[in-house]
Structure formats: C-alpha cells, structure tokens
Amino acid sequence: LSSVTFGVGILLDYRWFKMGVVSDQLAYGSAEQSLVVSMDSLLKTLDWGFSFSSPTYDDANQLHLLKFQGALDFVNLGSDTDRELKLGISAKLQLLPTWSVSLQLGYREYKPESTDLLKFSLARGRQTLALNAQLDTF
C-alpha cells in the first residue's frame, strides 16, 4: 500500500428527488508522508448533484408507460481547471418492468470561471444523444 485517500459524502434520497454532495479527497497520505487533512483538496474535488424522476408505478402499482428522468451535476466546484457542468435527461418507454426503450440527451461543459457555472454555451459544451434498449429477461 503506497498511498491512501479518504473522501466524504452525503445523499438525500426521496421518491422523486435525490441530491448528493461528495468530495473525493478529505484526507490523503502515503508511506513516506503522514495523513494530511486538506480543506483545499476537499473544495477542489467537491461535487454536487441533483436528480429528478417520475414514478415507475402509479398508486395502483401499475407500470407507467412513460418515465422521465433528469440530472444536473456540478463537478470539482473548487477547481479552476477541472470544474464542469453535466446535465442529462431521459425519456423512457416502459413496455414491461424489465423491457424498455430510452432516449437520452446529455450535455457537458468545462467551467474555468465559477461565475459561469449556470451559463450554457453549446459551442463550448459537448452534447450526446443515445437510444437505449433494455431487455433483461426473455
């Protein structure tokens, strides 16, 4: 074992809303160096994310035909070189509980300035589009 790193995180999980805050480097150390607790590393690797989801089943426990999901992540909030914004949305056609087809849209943009965190520039960002089929059991 040449080095060790400790992180910290917290997750709020509600039926349709989830929020997480995590940092990969609260403390780190190596065989040559004692354990160092660093607030600077904690802030540079701080991630904050939200997700929203429509229910899979209705109140009568019947499968909804359509399910929508969205996520927004702020990654490496304290870093001027690695800060980024990630956004994703998904529309899923649920044919059976284990069979579905999804259309997924994604967006990712590096944010060197913390004041630009909520500004979108399609020219600077990267967009993705995916079509996904899930057939778990036959």
Task: List the topology elements.
Layout: E1 3-13, E2 17-30, E3 36-37, H1 39-44, E4 46-53, E5 66-75, E6 84-96, E7 99-110, E8 126-135
Antiparallel strand pairs: 1-2, 2-3, 2-4, 4-5, 5-6, 6-7, 7-8
What would your notes on this structure say?
By secondary structure, the protein is mainly β. The protein has one domain (3-135): Beta Barrel (Lipocalin), CATH 2.40.128. Helices cover 4% and strands 58% of the residues. The protein has one helix at residues 39-44, and strands at 3-13, 17-30, 36-37, 46-53, 66-75, 84-96, 99-110, 126-135. Strands 1, 2, 3, 4, 5, 6, 7 and 8 form an 8-stranded antiparallel beta sheet that branches. The radius of gyration is 19 Å and the shape is globular.
What share of residues are in beta strands?
Answer: over 45%
Radius of gyration from CA coordinates? 19 Å
CATH architecture annotation: Beta Barrel
Amount of helix: under 10%
Written as H for each helix and E for each strand, in order along the chain, the element string is: EEEHEEEEE
Main β-sheet description: 8 strands, antiparallel
Distance between the termini: 45 Å
Shape: globular
User: Structural class of the helix and strand makeup?
Assistant: mainly beta
The CATH class is: Mainly Beta
Low-confidence stretches: none
